[in-house]
Amino acid sequence: MTNGRFSISLHILTLLEMLSDELLTSDYIAGSININPVLVRKEISNLKKHGLVESKEGKAGGYALAKPARQIRLSDVYQAVRQAPLLGTAKNSPNPSCVVGKQINKHLDALYADAEDVVVKKLGKTTLADFARKFA
Amino acid sequence: MTNGRFSISLHILTLLEMLSDELLTSDYIAGSININPVLVRKEISNLKKHGLVESKEGKAGGYALAKPARQIRLSDVYQAVRQAPLLGTAKNSPNPSCVVGKQINKHLDALYADAEDVVVKKLGKTTLADFARKFA
DNA sequence: TTGTACTGTAATAAATAACATTACAGTATG
DNA sequence: CATACTGTAATGTTATTTATTACAGTACAA
Fold first, then answer.
1. How far is the C-alpha of A48 from the C-alpha of A65, rounded, in Å?
2. Mutate to test the interface with A, among B7, B17, B120, B121 (most CBs of A within 10 A)
3. Owning domain of residue B45
4. CATH code for position B23
5. Which PANTHER family match (chains A, B) (predicted)?
6. B58 CA to C2 C1' distance (Å)
7. Average of pLDDT values for B104-119?
8. Handedness of CA A92, A94, A96, A102 (dihedral sign)
9. How far is CA B81 from CA A21, B66, B95, B107, in A?
10. Is A88 a residue whose pLDDT tops 70?
């Protein structure tokens, strides 16, 4: 899966929760993660699409959680960020005239879906509030 | 995780199981997967290291499973291929002077380890024999 | 004992994906 | 209307994957 995005999104959300009494700017967030502010804005643009973050434009603008941290499960974060199967996609097209090649993708897809399912279930057990609590 | 390698390894192993009465060449395998034979040999080199495949050099050489398919769990395949955390690694170094930045990697690592654990457990429930059986 | 059909592996190139940067239009605030 | 932000497009850079070429080493078989 698209490397690093889960980490970054969770980092952003954790910051927003820890400093939930103010709006945070992309510059500030970028400073904590140590990446480019534009990447932060892009990543947040995605989190907004998924209803996890809201933003205010203009001077004194910035970002905040769109709902209480205890209503955000880490599986929601994963789903927001996910864009490829967890175990990777082969970008080859197996030979359809081979018994295995013909069916492998179907079976792999099913297997991946199952594997992904247990991860989602696992991540669903922890909320952002739980996670942020670890940062004393 | 290193994209496509799990798919490719499993494809290889499935072929070896389905046609277990003969040695398969890298050319043949590459033809079914539709990738370069050298990649197949490289991937198999890794599977050999992990005791899943054995090979015979020279004319009439090729590859075969190193043990019965029912003794190979899909988690063994995953472990053989795995080289990075399942949920990705951020390659940034979070700001250590930030409360969140300072601790985030520790907490992410723990979370990732947990998530990976459930996947491995899940994959451990299916053997290569189970998987190959699907290819009627 | 030599040609042939393989594996094993290094080196390199090409393609793709991830990440960074620049630039600037749009918006809210004071 | 100057300032401090977000939003987003366009482009550049770097890293990772995948493909290819090349060839040494090995076993079989005539």
1. 9
2. B7
3. 5-133
4. 1.10.10.10
5. HTH-TYPE TRANSCRIPTIONAL REGULATOR YWGB-RELATED, WINGED HELIX-TURN-HELIX TRANSCRIPTIONAL REGULATOR, RRF2 FAMILY
6. 15
7. 90
8. negative
9. 45, 17, 32, 25
10. no
Residue pairs spanning A and B at CB distance below 8 A: 148
Spatial CB neighbours of A9, under 8 Å, sequence gap ≥ 6: A43, A46, A47, A77, A80, A81
* Cα separation, A85 vs A11, whole angstroms: 22
B3 CA, D10 C1': Å apart: 28
**pLDDT score for B49:** 95
pLDDT of residue A90: 53
Strand partners, A54: A64
Positions of strand C less than 7 angstroms from a protein CB: 3-11, 16-23, 26-30
Q: How far apart are CA A20 and CA B100, in angstroms?
A: 13
Which residues of chain B make contact with A39, given a CB cutoff of 8 A?
Answer: none
